[in-house]
């Protein structure tokens, strides 16, 4: 084995010193160059990773939504979000995917994140409209149709833009939100409506408005939701100043019971009208048609508005011919059990 020789710097010649310094400088340069290349490589990999995070594969998208292979590619085929081609493979753009997810309510992520955040903040569902107005869902649909309120369709479901709903709501006084009803409740409790005035004195509709027209100057009126109401204080003041009319509650008990029975009978007759429809009539009124079809008169008018039933307007009234009625029954496979004869 060769013996290692230690040479001191003082014993080296100037030429040898310069050679050693040159070699050391080269080594430092190579080390610095390798370090720079390594940093660039790491930075490039980091940038590449960041670039990859802007997309995801179709499989990752399907796993995120809990979809099987066929459903994944069907969703891609519908072009709901942007899909790009990277090295011959389809990848889903994350930004467009999240934007689509926030504007739909059908699909739901397995992570539990709620869909349709943008839709929920910008529009109401039909059920939400019904809850706001205190009506059933069917009535909410009728309101949208009758008042031509703007709607949008999201995943085959109709929704109402909040701006369109607020614009319609501000233009009317008939329907009220729970907040408005709570605000008006103290005034409603301190007043009575016109029909309540008639029932308290046992008056029919005509008599009620005749009496009100005579004593209007003695009563105080307020308007709630575009309806006139009489303050209870002014009603009691007027009632104490006259002796012509007597409240039902101030009458003998036997008479109160008789009035209650009579009122109940009238209510039942108004809910179930008993009118006879001649079999050989050439023209029918909407009310007669409602009895024949066992629907409300309002539903008949909606059918006329949708032009499901041809009708003629004579002297301001709608008339439906027997031929039009028979045609409607045939098209809709409706069979009437019997035609009520005179």
Can you tell me the CATH class of the largest domain? Answer: Mainly Alpha
Neighbour order of strands in the largest sheet: 1-3-2
Indicate the proportion of strand residues.
5-15%
**Whole-number total of structural domains:** 5
The total count of helices amounts to 16
Oligomeric state of shown chains? single chain
Order of helices and strands: HEHHEEHHEHHEEHHEHHEEHHEHHEEH
Largest sheet: 3 strands, antiparallel
Head-to-tail CA distance between termini: 137 Å
- Low-pLDDT segments: 338-342
Structural class by helix and strand composition: alpha+beta
Strand tally, please? 12
Question: What radius of gyration results from the CA coordinates?
Answer: 41 Å
CATH fold group of the largest domain: Arc Repressor Mutant, subunit A
Compute the average pLDDT. Answer: 81
In words, what does this structure look like?
- This protein has 342 residues and is of the alpha+beta class.
- 54% of the residues lie in helices and 13% in strands.
- It has 16 helices and twelve strands.
- It has a three-stranded antiparallel β-sheet.
- β8 (221-224) and β9 (227-231) form a beta hairpin.
- α2 packs across α3, α6 packs across α7 (137-146) and α10 (194-201) crosses α11 (205-215).
- The longest helix is centred in the first third of the chain and has 39 residues, at 14-52.
- The chain is elongated and about 140 Å long.
- It starts with 13 loop residues before the first helix and ends in an 11-residue tail after the last helix.
